[in-house]
């Protein structure tokens, strides 16, 4: 680190010698509006503090000097900057022509100012039409231009202006890695690009702990609490003024209906801004008890307001950039910021064409707290920018060099996908059947497909792929967006890799099988795989009795005995993915043999296979059938016959079921003494037959401290499919819900 610091000092010394030992870099900073000043001010403070290197000239123009927009040049004076020149450049008007005339007026006035100042470099920010006039003037007068926030992608005419300024600029300070890549792809010289982060983050990241309640009360009233108000900031979209005004009207309607205290800031100076103000006044926003309408809020105070808001709504770049530093929920309306990189706190409403859609977005976002995002900066942009300025060699030619690298794409979240039925493809691999279903977010099985489970690995995998492809195609017809594929299968599963390590004897040729790769490759969707017992527990956590319960256990009583353990809201897999093999808890040292090779397991007593075995023994001894029962000659004896016989008074059948229930109950007692859940859920076809027996054993055998546990029967019709679906839905929707 010392070496590189010394190297940097040596380079700066060499640059000073090249530029002339006594020559300070004369920097002109031109600011046009309240938004760009919030980014330029930290740089201006840095330049002002290093008088041995720099001379600062400040030029103010644009909406800073207009009363309708708050005369924001005053905050520059309050920051103790000397304004060298004030240029009135805004031509009053309400259409696109007024913006063109404003650019023209600025181009007429700027040459005289630049001739007088003779700056070495001009710092220009962003994508406003005023900034385009500044960059054009400086470029034509051979003044070097440093452009802040180039390379970003948003929407409307701003993109075109920003990229036009990029082509005029000689040096570039960008905020994100993607913006840097975009600049390189636009043929800019990599050596003249600095990835510094956003200068405003230098102030943002040190602001949140300051006293804020007095600021909130000043702007929103004495009775307002943190996280219980909204900040609204919406600007006209110059490429579609009529639609943006309609969207603003719908936004105000939604905010009125939402009935929360709201701070509404006036729009910036663009074609259509006057019409938006008329919409506000037509709806009585300035006199509505829930609203406070203001022309301008000082940036330091604005930071505190958005940091502690319940939500920010609108289409300002501030919402998708600065607000992420606080994790405040943001609703971005329309296309003005399309393409911007965003944190997970931002929900896009691309087509804000109905009040209900905007209201739905408010219901989704208001009051949440997201992780803080530092996509746009780490709080150290200004030192990097000052160092970059010091490295500029004024004797280098102005001519730019070019290169042609690739461009990265950016994908962002859209509310149309949320309003579409978010769904999962759920796959259940049973011993007999293979089932695939489209399952909605609410746990509704929209469509289900069932086939016999093939005996060989190749046939089974081919059938899974075929059924999943058919279901994914059908999802489009039933208005479902498939988020991923969840697979529930018997045996031991490595869910991290999506591999079945080895399966039960009921599913042949199903060991060391990679399910994730072929299915993901075929469907181009993420794939999750887990054991069927774990999936049953996940189904209960999302859709059943386990919803909101911190610690619970699910026991599946079917052909075999399985289960899943949820501890502190998380599923337990164990160090070798063998946790919750509850069917193989040993309850007797010399009990019947289990399919696992051991003796006395719960499964050897209480599973469907165990009951079928005992039923066959009784049938072979002519002790199964009682009055009221009959069996066809070719009919296979099953557990159902044993249960029927017990109901009809067969004492031997009753004794077998009682033993099975006791074995299951003892297993549950062991579970209670080991993980101490507050809830036990019995699932599967035999659950109703065992629930009372399990409760009795707990009352007799369990420690008094765990006897209060609730034991219930699952109310889910299809826990395997629902659990497979929850593998997908719990993960893929986490950034929304």
From TrEMBL:
Residues binding an N-acyl-D-mannosamine are 492, 504, 532, 581, 584, 603
GO CC, alphabetical: cytosol
Which keywords are on file for this protein?
Allosteric enzyme, ATP-binding, Cytoplasm, Hydrolase, Kinase, Metal-binding, Multifunctional enzyme, Nucleotide-binding, Phosphoprotein, Transferase, Zinc
Which residues act catalytically here? 532
CDD domains for the chain: ASKHA_NBD_ROK_GNE, GTB_UDP-GlcNAc_2-Epimerase
Pfam families from the xrefs? Epimerase_2 (PF02350), ROK (PF00480)
* Entry binding sites for Zn(2+): 584, 594, 596, 601
Task: Read off the Gene3D superfamilies from this record.
Answer: 3.30.420.40, Glycogen Phosphorylase B
Under catalytic activity, the entry for this protein gives:
an N-acyl-D-mannosamine + ATP = an N-acyl-D-mannosamine 6-phosphate + ADP + H(+); UDP-N-acetyl-alpha-D-glucosamine + H2O = aldehydo-N-acetyl-D-mannosamine + UDP + H(+)
Q: Kindly indicate where the leader peptide sits in this chain.
A: none
The EC number on file is 2.7.1.60, 3.2.1.183
Q: Which residue ranges does the record assign to the UDP-N-acetylglucosamine 2-epimerase domain? A: 51-390
Example of a GO biological process term: UDP-N-acetylglucosamine metabolic process
- Can you name one GO molecular function term for this protein? UDP-N-acetylglucosamine 2-epimerase activity
Localization (cell): Cytoplasm, Cytosol
Q: Which SUPFAM superfamilies does the UniProt record give?
A: Actin-like ATPase domain, UDP-Glycosyltransferase/glycogen phosphorylase
Q: Its annotated pathway?
A: Amino-sugar metabolism; N-acetylneuraminate biosynthesis
Judging by the UniProt lineage, the source's domain of life is: Eukaryota
Q: How does it assemble?
A: Homodimer. Homotetramer. Homohexamer. The hexameric form exhibits both enzyme activities, whereas the dimeric form only catalyzes the phosphorylation of N-acyl-D-mannosamine.
The entry sums up its family as follows: In the N-terminal section; belongs to the UDP-N-acetylglucosamine 2-epimerase family. In the C-terminal section; belongs to the ROK (NagC/XylR) family.
Specify the protein name: Bifunctional UDP-N-acetylglucosamine 2-epimerase/N-acetylmannosamine kinase
| Species for this entry | Menura novaehollandiae
Name of the gene this protein is made from: Gne
């Amino acid at each position: 680190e010392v070496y590189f610091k010394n190297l940097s000092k040596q380079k700066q010394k060499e640059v000073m010698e090249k530029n002339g030992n006594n020559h300070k870099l004369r920097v002109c900073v031109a600011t046009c509006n309240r938004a760009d000043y919030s980014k330029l001010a930290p740089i201006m403070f840095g330049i002002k503090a290093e008088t041995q290197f720099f001379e600062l000239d400040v030029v103010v123009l644009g909406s800073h000097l207009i009363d309708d927009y708050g005369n924001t040049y005053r905050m520059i004076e309050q920051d103790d900057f000397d304004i060298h020149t004030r240029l009135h450049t805004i031509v009053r008007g309400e259409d696109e022509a007024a913006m063109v005339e404003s650019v023209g007026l600025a181009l007429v006035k700027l040459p005289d100012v630049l001739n007088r100042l003779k700056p070495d470099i001009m710092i220009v920010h962003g994508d406003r039409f005023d900034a385009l006039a500044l960059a054009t003037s400086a470029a034509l007068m051979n003044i070097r231009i440093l452009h802040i926030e180039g390379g970003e992608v948003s929407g409307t005419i701003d993109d075109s202006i920003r990229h036009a300024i990029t082509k005029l600029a000689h040096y570039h300070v960008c905020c994100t890695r993607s913006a840097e890549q975009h600049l390189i792809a636009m043929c800019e010289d990599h050596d003249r690009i600095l990835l510094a982060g956003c200068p405003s983050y230098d102030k943002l990241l040190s602001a949140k702990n300051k006293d804020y309640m007095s600021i909130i009360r000043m702007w929103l009233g004495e009775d307002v609490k943190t996280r219980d108000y909204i900040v609204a900031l919406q600007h006209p979209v110059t490429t579609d003024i009529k639609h943006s005004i309609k969207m603003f009207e719908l936004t105000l309607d939604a905010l009125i209906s939402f009935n929360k205290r709201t701070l509404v800031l006036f729009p910036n100076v663009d074609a259509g801004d006057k019409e938006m103000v008329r919409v506000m006044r037509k709806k009585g926003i300035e006199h509505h008890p829930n609203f406070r309408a203001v022309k301008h809020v000082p940036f330091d105070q604005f930071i505190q307001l958005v940091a502690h808001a319940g939500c920010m709504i609108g289409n300002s770049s501030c919402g998708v950039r600065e607000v992420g530093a606080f994790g405040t929920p943001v609703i971005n309306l329309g296309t003005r910021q399309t393409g911007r990189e965003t944190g997970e706190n931002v929900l896009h409403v691309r087509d804000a064409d109905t009040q209900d859609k905007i209201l739905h977005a408010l219901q989704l976002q208001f009051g949440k707290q997201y992780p803080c995002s530092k996509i746009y900066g780490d709080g150290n942009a200004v030192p990097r920018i000052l160092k970059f300025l010091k490295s500029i060699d004024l004797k280098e030619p102005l001519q730019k060099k070019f290169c042609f690298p690739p461009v990265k794409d950016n994908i962002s979240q859209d509310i149309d996908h949320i309003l579409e039925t978010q769904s999962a493809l759920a796959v259940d691999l049973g011993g007999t059947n293979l089932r695939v279903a489209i399952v909605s977010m609410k746990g509704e099985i929209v469509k289900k497909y069932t086939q016999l489970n093939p005996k060989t690995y190749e046939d089974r995998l081919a059938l899974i792929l075929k059924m999943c492809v058919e279901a994914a195609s059908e999802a489009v017809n039933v208005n479902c967006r498939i988020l991923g594929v969840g697979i529930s299968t018997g045996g031991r599963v490595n869910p991290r890799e999506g591999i079945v390590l080895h399966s039960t004897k009921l599913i042949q040729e199903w060991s060391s099988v990679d399910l994730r790769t072929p299915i993901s490759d075929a469907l181009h969707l993420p794939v999750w795989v887990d054991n069927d017992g774990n999936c049953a527990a996940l189904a209960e956590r999302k859709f059943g009795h386990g919803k909101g319960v911190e610690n619970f256990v699910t026991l599946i009583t079917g052909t075999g005995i399985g289960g899943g353990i949820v501890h502190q809201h998380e599923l337990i897999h164990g160090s070798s993915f063998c946790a919750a093999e509850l069917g193989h808890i040993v309850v007797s040292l010399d009990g019947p043999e289990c399919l696992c090779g051991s003796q006395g397991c719960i499964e050897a007593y209480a599973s469907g296979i165990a009951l079928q075995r005992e039923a066959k023994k009784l049938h072979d001894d002519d002790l199964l059938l009682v009055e009221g029962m009959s069996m066809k000659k070719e009919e296979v004896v099953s557990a159902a016959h044993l249960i029927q016989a017990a109901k009809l008074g067969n004492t031997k059948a009753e004794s077998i079921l009682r033993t099975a229930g006791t074995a299951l109950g003892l297993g549950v007692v062991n579970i209670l003494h080991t993980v101490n859940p507050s809830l036990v859920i019995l699932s599967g076809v035999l659950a109703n037959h065992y629930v009372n027996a399990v409760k009795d054993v707990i009352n007799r055998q369990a420690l008094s401290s765990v006897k209060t546990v609730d034991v219930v029967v699952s109310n889910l019709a299809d826990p395997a499919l629902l659990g497979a679906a929850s593998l997908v839905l719990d993960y893929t929707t986490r950034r929304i819900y």
